[in-house]
Amino acid sequence: MHDRPRAATDPERERQAIADAIAEHRALRGATLPILHAIQERLGYVPEAAVAAIAAALNLSRADVHGVRTFYHDFRSAPPGRHVLKVCRAEACQASGCERTIAHLAARHGAALHATTADGRLTVEPIYCLGNCALGPSVQLDGRLHGRATPARIDALLAEAAAEERA
Amino acid sequence: MTVTVFVPRDSAARSVGADAVAEAIVAAAAAGKHDVRVVRNGSRGMLWLEPLVEVAAPAGRIAYGPVAPADVPGLFAAGFLRGGDHALRQGATAAIPYFARQTRLTFARVGVTDPLCLDDYAAHDGLAGLRRALALEPAAIVEQVVASGLRGRGGAGFPAGIKWRTVLQCAADQKYVAVNADEGDSGTFSDRMVMEGDPYLLLEGMAIAGLAVGATEGWIYLRSEYPDARTVLVAAIQRARAAGWLGDDLLGSGRRFDVQLRIGAGSYVCGEETAMLESLEGKRGIVRAKPPLPAIEGLWGKPTVVNNVMTLAAVPWILQHGGAAYAAHGTGRSRGTLPFQLAGNVRRGGLVEVPLGTSLRTLVEEIGGGTASGRPVRAVQVGGPLGSYLPASRLDVAADYEALAAAGGLLGHGGIVVFDDTVDMAAMARYAMEFCAIESCGKCTPCRIGSTRGVEVIDRITAGDRREANLALLRDLCTTMKDASLCAMGGLTPLPVLSALEHFPEDFARR
Question: What CATH code is assigned to B330-420?
Fold first, then answer.
């Protein structure tokens, strides 16, 4: 279910993803969230064009759908980098040193929270608890959970991701 | 003869390499022509030993951990398939002191069985509670839960049986059971461990709740941060339906109960029950004013049992053994056991199910072993981001609903986050306000505006800007948030802030 990051937007691809997601989930009661999730799973973000399409399909106002899309932290409005790293900064991970990991990401990898690296390789987002609070700091890289994410472990994880990309 | 080897599929174990260990064991077994069956079980909850590999040896299950893939050839060479000696050998799993001293009612099966195996579930007391419930009138099921003294494990601690009774007494064409699996509190993971490690337990608890109140539909609201739990639950619901454990003919009784799963989207406040109902209905997670109570007007406006995963997961045991047997554990008005979670900077972090009333010192020092860093414990936060900070000197308080409330804290969902003496408590207080600002649903002003103002005031205090006046302002702001917020988000954020200020004033006066 992890996001598949892409670099550029493609209106035709967006249109198709939105149509597919609506077709798949519109019969559900309260379908807005499942549709938004399905769009983001396909594209890595939820384009603006989704709002009108979902509103029309579910007989909601565009304001309603816009409200939902922007209320929840999960939904991105623009494509992320090729890899998405979510770094937990909740209390248990703070107790285990997540602030050092976050500082390391900025200093060594040029990746600040809420930002994508200039080369489009990596997006770093904060997250508030991954439920791995005894093995912190915890991160989620492309949907996969990693514990004890010290600066050294982060370097290894990002190197693995880069190697997979080259392969 | 085939030897069974257990390697957890729990996401905490996977986060430190359990998948690679399982692969290495399969590969080494094939290379050495050993007849090995690898079962991906739930976690035993001894998370500092993960990946914890167990071997079903002739004398019982023997544990080895923490195992890295590079250790696997050595384990085979040491004869671990027969329980052989090795530096990582922890002995018989059930005899490890951390585990042996627990009272595992809810977590009895977690880590023991293959989470998705229906036969395993049935062979380990699974469905006994549901079968008992099917033989009872709805009111009699409710009375067992009332007699158990079970209180809401999500944090509010409301008696579950009373809530169920309210829903039972409502006349309606449709009722619901809505499960709060939005386990957002930092330092908590018991819901996740049950959903990943014993998912049928939750489904069984939901079905019993459905029978008790006359609800035929159950909805699970699972947070998106738990993709592994989602995978397990999707599979468990499918298999349970196929086996007749859910659906139109519950265990052949002719009674109906079915379950659907919805995924949250990264909003902490959706763990508040009315915001969760809004989110389940596909809307923004805006808190509803109460009354009406969700028990009377809940999901889609219908009477709804809203319970936490842990609450419902306690129910099958209660039905199987009787409410009185559950109530025999615990203390005062805090009956039964609680799966505590030891988290943060703690040497032996993990899941510890013990009777309510166990002292924080026992949990943090004796069981948890103090800090992972080896430095002195300075503070613990109990009950998530809305819970109080307690100094090391106050750890003798009993971990139950009343005693923690009397100490100015709250039990919450049973998470205990340990900090060593390097923690800056003014920074933690600031973070509490910042988190509230990030996660506020925005409906009420004290929470929406007060949290942002709170960050600013704390910044002025720590900068040494008119400290006394700003401390008075912070206390005043906290009073407003506590008294005038619509829900616990704004209403309890003052707890970590004021407790940090009370117990660690020196951290606010460094400049």
Answer: 3.10.20.600
Distance, CA of B253 to CA of B255 (rounded, Å): 5
**Cis upstream peptide for B391 (omega within 30°):** no
Helix axes of B190-197 and B199-213: crossing angle, nearest 10 degrees: 100
pLDDT in tens, B457-503: 999 999 999 999 999 999 999 999 999 999 999 999 999 999 999 99
Determine the CATH number of domain B118-327: 3.40.50.11540
How large is the ipTM?
0.96
The answer to whether residue A2 scores a pLDDT higher than 90 is no
Of B264, B268, B282, the CB nearest to A30: B282
Chain B hits for A66, CB-CB cut-off 8 Å, are none
Asked, for residue A6, whether it belongs to a domain, the answer is no
Q: Distance (Å, rounded) from C-alpha B429 to C-alpha A91? A: 11
Task: For chain A, positions 4-23, list CB contacts with chain B under 8 A.
Answer: none
Give the per-residue pLDDT at A7.
Answer: 52
Residues 311-350 of B with CB under 8 A from A: 341-346, 349-350
Residue entry with tokens 């337990």: B201
| Shortest distance, CA A81 to any CA of chain B (angstroms) | 19
The total number of structural domains in chain A stands at 2
Residues A155 and A87 in one domain: yes
pLDDT value of residue A6: 46
Flag residues of chain B having pLDDT under 70: none
Peptide bond into B66 cis (omega under 30): yes
Task: Please give the Cα distance from B360 to B328 (Å, whole number).
Answer: 21
Supply A70's token pair.
């922007």
pLDDT of residue A9: 84
Distance of CA A157 to the CA centre of its chain: 17
